[in-house]
Design brief:
The protein is built from 7 helices and 9 strands. With about 220 residues, it is of the alpha/beta class. Helix 1 crosses helix 2.
């Protein structure tokens, strides 16, 4: 709580934050928040903007030093990037089945704020296995607040929009089979639309490029 309060103060000092669509976050039951990813400031931005406690899946390399303590304190747990980390995936499934909410960044790494990165199948796997609702999230401003490669924050207003929730089966025809590819393409469209709500017009990922690993990272 202290860390989260400190993060909120930091966002206020360095340009403020505007949040829209918060009412779209289900108040109970399993939920997956799926944001676009443009900065290391994205996880605390989502944590500060949400009206519900969330856990985070984060690549294990981030659990080092001060930043590692920060993301651990807001409910993160490590996953191995570029591999099928079955232990972490099982943990995520268990958490969702218990009715928790989880933040998973579907892009394989932070993008450049121009084009959405390649999506992996992590959200598809979790959504299909647990029946969790997926809330697409658009983030803008964090790429200026904490640019990629920089360790110093700059003044920039952070904008966060929570889109309408949907289910795994919503990605296909009614009564028809939904594949991971269909779902991931549908998810990309929803996240792109959420990003556009906060003034970030991202180019979509290259068609047909999906990472085979089931783990999303920060």
């Amino acid at each position: 709580m202290i860390v989260l309060t400190t993060a909120r103060v930091a966002f206020f000092i360095f340009g403020g934050m505007k949040v829209t669509g918060r009412e779209n976050i289900p108040k109970s039951g399993p939920v997956i928040l799926a944001p676009n990813h443009i900065s290391h400031a994205d996880p605390p931005a989502v944590a500060c903007a949400a009206n519900r406690d969330f856990l985070f899946m984060a690549k294990e390399e981030l659990f080092r030093g001060l930043f590692g303590r920060l993301i651990f304190s807001v409910g993160s747990f490590p996953v191995k990037r570029g591999s099928n980390d079955t232990e972490s995936i099982r943990k995520a499934i268990t958490l969702l089945e218990r009715g928790n909410a989880l933040v998973v960044f579907p892009e394989g790494s932070r993008g450049d704020g121009v084009k959405m990165g390649t999506l992996n199948k992590g959200v598809a796997l979790l959504a299909k296995k647990t029946g969790a609702k997926i809330v697409p999230v658009g983030i803008n401003g964090t790429q200026k607040l904490l640019p990629k490669g920089s360790r110093k924050m700059k003044r920039a207003k952070t904008l966060v929009h929570f889109g309408e929730p949907f289910l795994f089966e919503d990605a296909g025809p009614q009564g028809g089979k939904v594949t991971s590819e269909m779902f991931t393409q549908y998810l990309a469209q929803k996240v792109l639309a959420a990003a556009k709500e906060v003034g970030l017009s991202l180019e979509g990922p290259t068609p047909g490029t999906l990472e085979t690993d089931a783990v999303a990272d920060l």
